[in-house]
Design brief:
Strand order of the largest sheet: 1-2
Largest sheet: 2 strands, antiparallel
Shape: globular
Oligomer: single chain
Distance between the termini: 27 Å
Structural class: mainly alpha
Amino acid sequence: MSVLRWVLAAILLIATPLPALAHSSTRGFVLLLPTGYVIFSGALVVLVSFIVVSTLKSSSSSLRLRPAAQRHSNAVLPSVISAIILGVAVSIGFTGPHDPAENLLPLMIWTLWWVIIVLLHPLFGDIWQTLNPFSGPARLITRIFPPPLAFPVQLAYWPALLIYAAFAWFQLVYPGPENPPRLALVVMLYVAGTMLAIMAFGHKTWLGKADPFAVFLSQVGATAPRTGAGWTYPGAGLLSLAPLPAAGMLFVLLTLSSISFDGLANTFAWLAVIGINPLDYPGRTAVMLPNTLGLLGSFILLAAVYVSAVCAGWAWAGKPVALGHLLGRLVLSLIPISIAYHLAHYLGDALLNLQYTVLALNDPLGSGENLLGLAGMHVTASFQNTAFGALVLFSVQTVSVVLGHVVATVVAHAMAADTGLDRVTMMKLEAPLAALMVLYTTFGLWLLATPAIS
């Protein structure tokens, strides 16, 4: 089967409504709900939010969206402590239990870091700037050995884009991303490569432009309502970020499309497209090629639709501003959607894996120790297998998706308002992007309601 066929299949799947199929557990309870009405209502809320903000005066100050103050951390100790913790976790990955549910490294990487720490950023800002394991050791090293190279300006965000693409493939396509020794090796390679790059170009330059996780978490942290100067509206900090170049724009779109495909890849609908029986799932190894192409196709589709929507609004409004500036600025308004999808997609797994994490901390080497006195504790998933638990989980996920799109719509309007255009011209500029957000809301809520294998 050709590459083109798989990419077209991914595009057609996302663009075409599909029938619901049976599923058990949480999704089984969800299918008993009037999910069609929920999807319609969520999309309607986003549409109404666009109409409401469009009636406001044409200035961002009328929305009272104050850009968040940018802070830079110079703390060395928290970073060094993080580096030590990461080193211990990697060693446990090599020497600890082989079961990913019992080994501390996969639980730390995929639950504590990629879920909990990421979701703390929209609440408290860019805490990774202080906690990341690179900046502290880098400051100590560069005091003795100053960085010898200048980072090429034309490379800005391209390393971040490529490294994040490799990370997304490893997480979503590779058969064993939770295998402790393999994950430990990958983390070691990433740490070694990052430290070499930091020593060559300096930590501020590399972490500010080229490290995908520092860049991503900085962008997510800009949405926090709490700033050094006080309180502001969620997402207001995005107004203070500079428009991104082409690579930066593609980076934001990749972070959103990858989390979207993560939700899509396990659905019965996607498995039907690639010819897999969801009731006899053969494992990741059998679907590496279609999932690789699906991940790529999702990114290409989102990038094409986003650029088309912005270009359509720009042309309809009479080309009032530079197109590159508009593309690089409005893409930042999609970051709240990425946060919402992150919460909605990982919430259920995080609630379960946090229990495994506590047990792993109780016996990190799998040697029968009882450091926290929790030897008798048992992991439970029963809260996801009741009608009430499923309803609460689905409600939180639904609200997060809808609110993420509403915040994105308001932020996009505030960015458009900064152009100083009159109300009619500004509505023309925004309308296609708002339509995209409504459609993406529909897709996101469909992902929550449709049957999936996990």
